[in-house]
Amino acid sequence: MLIEAHELSSSTTTPFDVVVVGAGAVGLTMAVDLARRGRRVALLEAGPAKPEQNSQKWFEQATLSGKNLEGLHVGRFRCLGGTTNFWGGQLVPFAPMVFAQRNWVSDALWPINSNDIAPFVDAGFNILGLGHVIRDDTEVWKRLRLQAPPKTDTIQPIVTRWAPESNLAIHFAKDIAENPNLTVVLNAQVGAIIVGDNGAVEGVQIRFTDSAPIHVRGESVVLANGTIEISRLLQLPDHLDRQTPWATNQWLGRAFMDHIDCYAGGVVPIDNKRFSDLFDNAFIEGLKYNPKLRLADEVQAREQLLEISSHFVYRSSIADNIANLKILVRGLLKGRVKRSALSDPLAMLGTLKFVVPMAIRYIRYRRMMNLSDAGIQLRLTSEQTPVTESRVRLREERDPFGMPIVDVDWKLDPRDFETMARFAEYIKYYLESHRLARVDLAEGLVKRDPDFFAQADDANHQMGGARMATSAQEGVVDADCAVFGTRNLYVAGAAVYPTSGFANPTFTAIALGLRLASHLISRRKELYAKVA
What we know:
Radius of gyration: 24 Å
Helix content: 25-40%
Number of strands: 21
Strand content: 15-25%
């Protein structure tokens, strides 16, 4: 059921089993999973059903006091489905090494390991429509009838998987419309957490700009409203303007992270066909697979470097027209063509001489040809060292909901850039020694020029601020994502990460959300068993 916040009857609304705040990738997936398993769930989304400028403006008020973080304003979306409305759908589980103790990265330890999350990675593939996904990279290359890129002591080829429908509001549309256990509430801005006199969380307060607040109560409350909004909400007083039981936790809003991206240089294939065979996107039984290169675990440990990967960015003079054609074809297939895709039909027709070979290659080899008449660039995505003073703060100024506006002070450790430079050098040697491509690395990168690294940007992968740990002295939530200092309050999402790896954080966050859903179901069964 999909309703507006103002349609909720009153503050005496019957308690739900679980109240989930935030209907992005993590909150939506988790809420659907809980509802399918018989739990009554209220899923509260601060924005409307689809992206709107009037809703996005609330994010525009956020400020920066540290390194520029472009994703603060262009990487967050306040609507049903959240960032999945503009997400490619790449699903990359964190490597086991990310969960391991790496003293050269951080003294922050994950209280779980890769085996603890593995079953929920499988569950994530299933619930996102990838039940038939090929999990073994070797098998992917076998199905493509190609030799995999060579693995060396320094470089490990990997293959990433992509969701067939990246917009999860569309993927879960049937559940949203028909599951009687799921109530999705739009334009429901949560402004405070309801804390009882005994310190237990009882629900959340929805605020309006022009009317009295409404309380939504639940046996458990899960914050899944994005890294920055989670940090903000946890730092606020409760619904009665009292200090919360967790307010004194020193890690609230701290150790904020993002991935560090940069263009490392130009790439010229030596053998275009071989290069394309190894690095173009592949499609098998309707699912997309994308080859990448990452730094081997052994090198990370030996040289005390961070997790990092690379991919190739293909530049084309007709990129816009190709993009419009993709939108047109996708729209025709799904019955939702956008008029904007037809804005310049003559220009699109002119690209057919490029599109036809692409189509033939796709049909014959299940590969998608990348057009690169304007060149190929090497793009790096690196983990960052957690920095305690990198944080989300609350300003004194308030928005029309009466909530403090956030300021993000994103800080980096300058030593992180050595990882990018070393990896770029390893990639250059790898591609050239195997006669795959010539690489012209950026001079500033090779010379470790601070001015070059100052231009490195974020990846719209916001993490940290409510990190997972074994105690309140080391983090904000425990191994089950429960907030230290209270009962019934949980955090789901990348905010709980103590370290980040290089992978897009979304899929691991979804898996952790599904793990939390199972915990909530088991916990409720235990409580009822004790009562009985």
